[in-house]
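Minutes, project check-in
Item: structure for the 147-residue chain
Input as provided by the requester:
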Amino acid sequence: MVARWMTRAFPYPYTLRDAESWISLATSDGPGRYYAIEVDGIVAGGIGVEPYRGERIGAAAFGYWLGQAYWGRGIGTDAARTLSDDALTDGSLRRLEARVFAPNVASARVLEKCDFQLEATLRAFYVDRNDKVRDALMFARLAKDNR
């Protein structure tokens, strides 16, 4: 189940109305950049960068998800590498941050392959969909001139 290691902000079950809301967000003129991950003409997942404001300007949250049928094929890694490279080279961002549920080893590995560094374990950070308290792993990737 894709939603297993996602925050509750990601709806489950995912309905047509949820998809329409996401498309509206992705096509809006807001500060975030959201994209569908497409494989052979089918939407296989989603990915995005959402810039922070105020004292955290120049940093952004980074996240992605991929349908289970597409796991283990390098698709998530390719999408994450492509967007993170692009987001950090256009000059507007110096830092991307991504948090994953600690048991989500596959997602952590995707981030590591894309040059994100593990910065911290956030103890008892999440409550998962089964109401179990979980640690989070905090990853970050910096633009080359900020390393």
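Outcome recorded: Strands lie at 33-39, 42-51, 59-66, 95-101, 117-127, 133-142.
No further action items on this chain.
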